[in-house]
Amino acid sequence: MEAPYLQQNQPAGVPPLALTGERTLPDVPEENYWFRRHLAVYEWIAERVAGMTVTDLACGEGYGADVLAGAAAEVIAVDANPEAHAHAVARYRRPNLHFQRDLVENVIGPRDAIVFLQTIEHIVDADELLERIAAAAPLAYISTPNRLTLAPPGAEKSDNPWHLREYTLEEYRGLLSPHFGSVEILGLRHAGRLRAHEWALRLGWDRLHAALGVTDAFYDRFTPAIRAADFSLGTGRLEGALDFLAVCRR
């Protein structure tokens, strides 16, 4: 069995996490695209929760909670996985950042905002959890991948074994709207070098790099170079977005 990818260059005393596909990780070059895709959303939210008390549900490795804590008054970061919790506690230390090992279903308030990213698709009873989130805070940021750009055409979901359900735009809006007074949905798209890469593919770059035998060499350099700025959030053409970010108000 092939060994899993491990985080590289961790600080002393911080146990590296293995890449399992259940969560994304920083410090794994092969995973950098997905890490930056998630980080872009955390950075966008951080600008909007300055001075607030925030709970980051399903915080995973902890990098996003650390970004939020750079702006928020206080962040409580919750995850049930013992390895991820131990790693986060050891790596991310701020006086206003607190990690709790618990189920997301146990969320409580009052808080100013709840952040719940790329996890609703893992939840068995999403409606019950959304009720708890709405009761805990007047503002929630909730994201999920767009099934239409993640799964094969016509499929009910992708082959990700951790996802129980994936949503189209209207399905996602229909899931959230009964639980909040207002729901604004933004779409995450490629920008910068990733947008340029999309155009290159349309012009035949995929055939060219294969013919030249430089596929591995190119992507070994290109993927680690991706940054959060290579993604953008907006309200246009949502049906073709990579991920949906819902800004939900009670």
CATH topology name, in short, is Rossmann fold
Query: Helix count, per DSSP?
Result: 9
Gyration radius, in Å: 18 Å
In total, the number of domains comes to 1
Look at the structure and give the CATH class: Alpha Beta
Name given to the CATH homologous superfamily: Vaccinia Virus protein VP39
Summarize the structure in words.
It is a single chain. The chain is of the alpha/beta class and 250 residues long. It has a single domain (29-249), classed as Rossmann fold. Helix content is 34%, strand content 19%. It is built from 9 helices and 8 strands. The protein has helices at 32-46, 63-69, 82-91, 126-136, 147-150, 169-176, 192-202, 205-212, 215-225, and strands spanning 53-57, 74-79, 97-101, 113-116, 139-145, 182-190, 231-234, 243-249. It has an 8-stranded mixed beta sheet, sandwiched between helices. Helix 1 (32-46) packs parallel to helix 2. The longest helix is centred in the first third of the chain and has 15 residues, at 32-46. The model has no long low-confidence stretch (mean pLDDT 95).
List the helices and strands and how they pair.
Layout: H1 32-46, E1 53-57, H2 63-69, E2 74-79, H3 82-91, E3 97-101, E4 113-116, H4 126-136, E5 139-145, H5 147-150, H6 169-176, E6 182-190, H7 192-202, H8 205-212, H9 215-225, E7 231-234, E8 243-249
Parallel strand pairs: 1-2, 1-4, 2-3, 4-5
Antiparallel strand pairs: 5-8, 6-7, 6-8
Helix pairs in contact: 1-2
Keywords, separated by commas or semicolons:
250 residues, alpha/beta, Rossmann fold, 8-stranded mixed beta sheet, 9 helices, 8 strands
